[in-house]
Structures are given as C-alpha cells and as structure tokens.
UniProtKB/TrEMBL annotation:
Superkingdom classification of source: Eukaryota
Polar residues bias locations: 32-50
Domain Rab-GAP TBC: 49-249
Cited Pfam families: RabGAP-TBC (PF00566)
Positions of region (Disordered): 26-54
Organism: Ceratopteris richardii
High-level lineage: Eukaryota, Viridiplantae, Streptophyta, Embryophyta, Tracheophyta
Example of a GO MF term: GTPase activator activity
PROSITE patterns according to UniProt: TBC_RABGAP
Gene3D superfamilies: putative rabgap domain of human tbc1 domain family member 14 like domains, Ypt/Rab-GAP domain of gyp1p, domain 3
Official protein name in the record: Rab-GAP TBC domain-containing protein
Length: 335
C-alpha cells in the first residue's frame, strides 16, 4: 500500500540523492520550451546551464527530512521501474531500437543497477522512468513518489521520445490523480465508497453478498482505482480509455455535453467519475462468479486480478454509461 511503500527503510546515503540531482539535469529531462513561470524556472538555461540550477535550488530548499524521503523514493522507484511491463514495445519503434550503449549510459546516469538482464529497450525505458520520476519527486515533494506512479508514467514515456514532454504530460495527469497517492488515503477511500454505493443501488443482491463476506468496503478494486485500470487493460486499451476519461472530465466541467449510450438507451451526462462507473461495471460482469464462488474478500480480489487482459473496454464503457444514466443523479443527491 501507498503509505507502507513510502516509509520503507533504506540504507542509501544522502550523498547519492545529491548526485542524482546533477544527473537529472544532465539527462535533459526538462527543456526551455515550457511557457509558465514555474516551468521556465525549472526548464530554463542554455546548454551551458540546463535546468541544473533550478533543481539544485529545489534540493537546497528541502529540509533534512525531505532529503531522506527523496533517497528512499529513489530506491523504490528504481525497483518499480524495472518491473514495468514491456507491452509498449510494438507501439514505439524508435524506442524499441535503442542501442545497448545508449541504454547502459542512461541507466548508469540514474544509478539503475538492478536491471542488467533486461533487453536494451526495456532498460532504457526503465532509466527514463527513474529520471522523470526523480524530477517529479522534487517538483512535487508533498506527493513525492509512491508505487503505482511508474505505471501511470510508462505510457507517456513510450509514446513521447522527449523526456521533457513526457514529464509535463505526466505532471498534468498527476494534477487530476494525485489524491490517489495521499498518505491519509482520503481520495482513495472516497472512490471506494462511491463504488460501494453504486453497487448497492444497481445490484442489491451482489451488495448483500459482499456484506456477508465482509468485502463491502470494495478494497478489492484498490489497484484499479489507484492506477486507473492500467494493469487490467492492454496498452492500446489503456490509451483509448484514458483519453475517454479525460474527455468526459472536460465535458463535465463545461456541463454542456450529453453523451449517448447505445442506440435507444437513455443519455448519460458526462462525469468526473466515469472510471468508477467502469470499475463497477467490471465487478458486475463477474457477479455470478463472485456470488457463487467467493467466500471472502481475498477471493474477490483474486477474481479482480484475473481480469487483467481479459476485459472488453468498449463493452465496459457501454455498461458504465448505462449506470451513469440510471444512477448518477441518485449518487450526487445522496453525497
């Protein structure tokens, strides 16, 4: 879980983190094409002074406690980065063909030593993840690093060859999902509770069974919420699904668009919480198995984990739209 990972012990000396600040600036994670004042401060500088002064300034501003936090984050993010799936490779020919020399150099630059058996393209990808996540941990020290962030970053790194582009896309993405990584887990708990309420409204029998097996808190969908179903969906499905989520959030802000369900169905309003309706739809698609075979929360968790790679995202979206059309108003009224 998030809070456990972030407070794991580490023997990494603080000097390594200081070295990493220099390495991050040398790797060119951010460049000067950004336009906001803060981005310019981070990304400013010619080739003679690339972003290093801004990063060192941030390091100097950090308290001793935050520096210790950073060294711990660095160790965890390295281990997480080498475990990220390589299913992106067919979708990024330019990165799939990276040379062994380039991969080894970047891995050395970010202190990545746990990945010697990886193919060059996977090693290079892992090193880019570490480099960008290091910058993000300094850019947003309140959030820092938590397990799961690497899986959210990986699609951006796979699709964008320039680190600064991947960084700012990821940073904007995190503005919407950083609540998932709060130590108090308030954001996660709110979402789990909403799915629980939705199941109670839409499927009372299933909800009653979850109550009976003490799984009504919906902890079994924790991972789906945390990383937006990244592991449940394929790489291609993830890209399409996330774009639909972003489009729905944008439409919900303007409150002007009505999005149709299947032909002949009621119209579903755009919502900030489409992800949760999709997750509820995924659980409901497994309702028969859950009610007949699951006798505890761990059984439901295992069934949810088995969804990985076996979901029809378009069918889920259709079912989710139906749920939005039928229950969105009731959930908003009861909130």
């Amino acid at each position: 879980m998030c809070n456990t990972d972030r407070h794991a012990s580490t023997d990494m000396p603080a000097t390594i983190a200081n070295e990493q600040v220099h390495e991050m600036s040398d790797s060119g994670v951010i460049d000067g094409s950004s336009t906001s004042p803060e981005q310019k401060q981070l990304a400013s500088g010619s080739s003679k002074s690339p972003f290093e002064q801004g990063k060192l300034a941030r390091w100097e501003e950090m308290s001793a406690h935050m520096r210790r936090e950073f060294t711990m984050w660095h160790r965890i993010m390295r281990l997480d980065a080498i475990r990220v799936s390589g299913e992106w490779v067919p979708h990024s020919p330019s990165q799939a063909s990276v040379s062994k020399r380039a991969a080894n150099q970047l891995a050395m630059d970010v202190g990545l030593r746990e990945d010697e058996n990886l193919e060059p393209c996977l090693r290079h990808h892992a090193a880019r993840l570490v480099s960008i996540l290091e910058v993000y941990a300094l850019y947003d020290p309140e959030t820092g690093y938590c397990q799961g962030m690497g899986e959210l970053l990986s699609p951006f790194v796979a699709l964008l060859d320039e680190d600064y582009q991947a960084f700012w896309c990821f940073s904007s993405f995190m503005n919407a999902v950083r609540q998932n990584f709060r130590l108090d887990e308030v954001g996660i708990q709110r979402q789990l509770q909403m799915v629980s309420n939705l199941l109670k409204l839409s499927d009372p029998q299933l909800y009653k069974h979850l109550e009976m097996i003490e799984a009504v808190d919906c902890f079994f969908i924790y991972r789906m919420v945390l990383i937006l179903m990244r592991r449940e969906l394929t790489f291609e499905q993830t890209i399409s699904f996330w774009e639909i989520l972003w489009a729905d959030k944008t439409a919900a802000r303007f409150d002007k668009v009505k999005i149709s369900c299947r032909k002949g169905k009621r119209k579903a309003p755009p919502t900030d919480d489409l992800l949760l309706y999709v997750i509820a739809a995924a659980v409901r698609q497994r309702r028969v198995f859950i009610m007949e075979k699951c006798r505890c929360m761990d059984d439901v968790l295992n069934e949810c984990n088995n969804m990985s790679g076996n979901l029809d995202v378009w069918s889920l979206l259709d079912d989710a739209r139906d749920l939005v059309a039928s229950y969105h108003h009731k959930l908003v009224t009861s909130a």
